[in-house]
Amino acid sequence: MLPVSSFHLQSSFLENRYEKTTNNTEELIEHYLESFRQIKNEISSLEILKRQAMIVYMQNSQDLAEINNLYKQFMCDLKKDSSFTINQQKPISSLGEQIDNNLDISTSIMKPIDIQWTVEYPNKNNEGFLSLRCYVKTGSVICAIAYDPSGTLFAFANTRTLFVVSSSTIQTHCAIDYPTGPIKNDIHVRVLKFSPDGNFIAIALPSYKIGIFSLSMKSFIQLLDAHSKTITSLCFLKSQHLLVSGGRDGLVCIWDINNGMCIKSIKPKSDFQNNLDDGIVSISTSFNYSYIIVCHLSGSVDVYDSNLEQTLFSFIAHKNTILSCSTSPTDNVFVTTSHERITKLWRNSTLVSSNNDHIDSVICSSFSYDGRIVFTGSKDESIIGFESTTGQTIFKAKVHTNTVLGIEHNPRFQNFLSCSGDGLVCVWDYKS
User: Fold this and answer.
1) Which CATH superfamily includes the segment(s) 108-430?
2) What pLDDT does 131 receive?
């Protein structure tokens, strides 16, 4: 048996050893925490360098675009002098790929007399309602068109170039090649949007990135990178600098276009299971920016609050793939289109009206500026305008010789745009 004094000595020894071990553990934890903090700071610094490098890259790309434009002008001047015979070659991009010549809008505007187009009126009282003002031959598949908030400019894009055009004169405001990066299999630009103040254009580039174009600088100022598949939808929130994107990868992202940072990213899962892809096909905001509508390829619709924090309600809109969604500029109603050849108008999750006069998939849709008419484009190559409250067709027009891929109504005037796989961008007017 140990004496009492010996027991105290051993206890003291064990306590000192425990304290020393505890101190060592705390020092080790603090050491790791400090290492993590240093790594985090280094990552932040690298992110800043990455954004700076992207900006420098874009600036160099713009310089190259200017050189290409000068080259084209030089070639045009030489052509005017018959003493020169030149074997013209396409300029080469910094990525080692050939760049398509920019579209010359001034020589591509055609009047309706130059093309065959037809329009049917189920109600003869509506005859003369629609007229084709002019069209632009682009020579390339055009999927994306948009008006600026004032209705004085519109934009469209092919695989290489963003065009901004005066909606009154149909003259080019600016045209610029964008930095595409590696081209993916799906090379067509699917969507572009003007910011609410009209100062910027967000465009879904073929490289699965989002380019932010400044109209005042006439150059790209940001490249936003988060999606891994085709970007199908873009919309700005009430705050001028916040952008929402959605893609076939199922991601919904909120971006701050001032600094190029993704401030929120979610991957919503539909509560309604089927065998269809659950990627995002369309995102829209209500006319007063009070909620955000997210449409899934699977046919379901999720409606979120304005910050994407909470799902307000969800429902099945179509049994087949949803292809587009657009919201009324005057009321809390929206339309969805699908492979089912039917367009449905909803108030919350209640069906208000529908139209099924297309004979093939309905690809795109847009409301008139007063919300009274819905315009749709289809794989059947036709455009339909119908009354939003009743679903009754006002007209059915045909000018395109391929799928109508985009419809966009002027936010202030009685005209709208259509674009197609045939390369035409058409400007339409209609009566009250």
Assistant:
1) YVTN repeat-like/Quinoprotein amine dehydrogenase (2.130.10.10)
2) 96
